[in-house]
Amino acid sequence: MSGEPTAFPLICAPNIPPTNSKEKLGDHNLLSAAGIAIEATTTAEGVKIVVDATKLKIPETLFEGTKEDLVRITLECVRMTANLTKVAKYSLEMKASSEFLESAKAVKEAFETHDKKAPFVLHPAEQ
Length: 127
Fold this sequence. Notes:
Blueprint (H helix, E strand, L loop, with lengths): L29 H4 L3 E7 L2 E8 L13 H18 L5 E7 L4 H13 L14
Parallel strand pairs: 2-3
Antiparallel strand pairs: 1-2
């Protein structure tokens, strides 16, 4: 665990497993493959987290949901990372393409009013 705020960008770090295969493997991190990036900086008020979904695309070989679902998953990862690293105060900024910005902000607003002790979204196997 890297600690705050560097732990947050790792949520979207590419994960290409090592292999001796002759076939090239792709990114196994869903959020990275979807084009989501996270920046985090420490401020006087806590940690400022910027979720950048401007390049968001659905990686069809890894995921069968919507762009909104990917944002929900990202925010759940932020919630879990904040809890694991004991970051009590953080703010969120959402960046997205103009055609997706309102949807992304709606998901962010739902997240911000959600109880951070409870999961924001459940893994399909847990439903």
